Every structure is written in C-alpha cells, then in structure tokens.
Amino acid sequence: MGRVTFDLDDLRSYVTGIELGSFARAAERLGRSTSAVSAHLKKLEQQIGAPILRKSGRGMVMTEAGETLLGYARRLLELNDEAAAAVRGLDLQGTVRLGLQEDFGETFLPQVLGSFTRAHPKVRIEARIARNAELIDWVLKGQLDLSLAWDGGISTPFQQDLGRRMMHWIASPNFDLSQWQGGDEPLPLVMFDAPCLMRSAATNALDRAGIAWRIAFTSRSLNGVWAAVSAGLGVTVRTDAGLPSGLLRLAPGALPALSHIGVVLHRAEENPSAAIGRLAQIVAERIDG
Questions:
Q1: pTM, whole model, 2 decimals?
Q2: What are the protein's UniProt keywords (predicted)?
C-alpha cells in the first residue's frame, strides 16, 4: 500500500465544516467555493478508501473513519499553525496580561497559552482568573491587556464579540430531579455568590415557570460549584465550557428553557502591541472554533 500524504487544505475544509456544522459555512469562512470544499472531502475519502460522512435526515454525520480522521486532522492543523506562527513571529516579544472567566481556565487556558508560548517563547504571559465584573474593571483601568468574559451588558471601548454559548441545567448523574418536580420542596441550586449572570438566568427562568427554589450552596470559585453539584447538593447553570466529564446536562424540558450568553474579548487599547494582538487573534479563533 502506497504512502498517504494528506493535504492540509483538505483537512482544514473538513475540520472547519464539522466545527461549524455546515460545509457551506466552511466554504464561506475559508474563502472557497462549495464545490472546492466538496472536492477536498472527496479527495480525503479517496485517500482513506472509506466514506468519512454519511447522510442522517437532512444533514450529514461522521462515519467511524471520519471521527478518527477528525482527531488527527485537528492535531496536524494545530501543529502546522503553531509552526507557521513560530516562524513568522521570531521577533515577537513583550508581556501580555490576560484575564479569563474560570469556565475557560482549566481546558482552554492551557491549550491556548501552551501553543502561544511554544510559538513565541520571548513573550511573557501573565494570566489571571476572575469574575466578570473584575475582568472588565481591570481592562478599563489598564491593569489587563485582554479579558475573556461573558457578555453581561457592560461594554468597553475596544471589544470583540466571539459568539454565543447555550446555558444548560447541570447536575450529578445521581441527582434525582423527580422528587422536586411537582412537589412542595423548593429546587436546590448550587451557584456562585451574587451578583452572577448565570445565577440570575436560573432564578429568573424558575420564577417565570412558577417553580420554587432555594440556594443550597454558594461558592466564589467554579471548582466549589462543581464539587457541590458532584456531591448531589443541587443543580447549577453554566455553559458547556469546562464542564467536568462526571456531570450531565439535563435533558431539554426537565427544567425551564434557558437562553444563550455571549462571549466577549475586551482589549485595553485600540492598537495594542504585536504580542497582544497575536494572542487576541488566537483566543478569538479558538473560541470561534
């Protein structure tokens, strides 16, 4: 069997289409025609010798071969992009002060900063995990260069909207929701200390539905919230960002529907340094993906 060498453009079309949920949108994002993206997918299937997508209803889903390819494709593209950034940014240096919501700290932060540091070893990163109000305040005071925060309706002069994420009711697999459905006992909630955007979203949704609730546990840290939910003390509301593998999103309809929440990247300056601008670009690309 001859050696197979995948084309990175083909892989990028495939990964982008899967991440956006549409190969037409992928074509638009990549600045290509839909026929070009289709040709990339066909070429990958020819190289593999098996289909990577199959029809499911009106859409397409990955085959087993497609799922396997996706993981390797992401790794190859990440290494390629990291190498390109390293070669182009050999002279990039300075300090970047980055603030993040705790939801992004455990998984997103190591991935982004690890890749950035390998590509730009002369740049010093100072990262801080904090709540929304603090992140925005520090940017406005010039104490942070960049802040990745939830959209709570507070704007800064230089900000970039990075899309929206769905909020979910989250609980332990052992949490028995049925004992509070239709009963007289208020639903126990595990939440951040007030003020908190997702705490307000949860209580407002329950109030509109006429469901009694009580705050069973509060914490100033997300790890404390996850620990209390894991222990079965109640349910919480977060997005899927940083969701621990041992916790579950409740099925739609189990509790009142929730809305989306925006993700915003705030900058302290309109024209930041090259290092700050490059990290802002990477953060935006990763969140968008």
A1: 0.68
A2: DNA-binding, Transcription, Transcription regulation
